[in-house]
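Many introductory courses stop at the sequence. We go one step further.
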Amino acid sequence: MALLIQIAFLLFIVMVNRLAFIYVVNRKLHFTLTKNPRLTFVYFLLMALVLAVLFPAEAMRLFDPVSSLTVFFTLFMLFVVNPWVYERMKKLHQTPSRLAHAYPDQQFLLIDTRFLFSKTGDVVFQQTAVGILLLLLYGAGIPLSELVPMFAVIFAIIHLHLYATTRALWATYFTISATVGGFMIPFIILLVPGGVYYAIIIHMLWYVGSGALFGAIEAVERGLKPRKR
């Protein structure tokens, strides 16, 4: 019973955080990932800190870096490599500008380094919640073979609210991607030393890769259009 209460409380915090950001921070206060990167970054880090305070034992295990190299590699990927990729995309004119204009709520399409900074805070919060939930269930004796499909379902369910807040196309894209992530993340966090750091890297690389994918598609489309004579 105690475990169920902990899990319910954790999931409640996650959903309150997500809905509060969408409906209060974003829509009422008009803070966005690209317009207010510092404030949104701090907001998500504070929410992650709340989880760490509420679940201190799991948080300490989760963020045990194993080695300083793990932390350095994470910071290098998040704050050096990812911004560099964005700059290269802009220089090569491979940004999804048409999609960004058509869907302004999908800020990852803007290829803006401010989004990378603030979204990193959000991803840290998400992976903190996921990691704590994994440690709680794994510590309760649930085998990895059951945790993996369970988390795929949980990731899918958590993203279903997007169908009420954004276009079905994007809601489907995010939900399918999250479901696939649910099959990967448990292995990374539970079996890889310092796994949460790599989970954060992979999560952010997904946003960078998605932007690069749609940017490349648009670049190909522009190249295929007949030139005006």
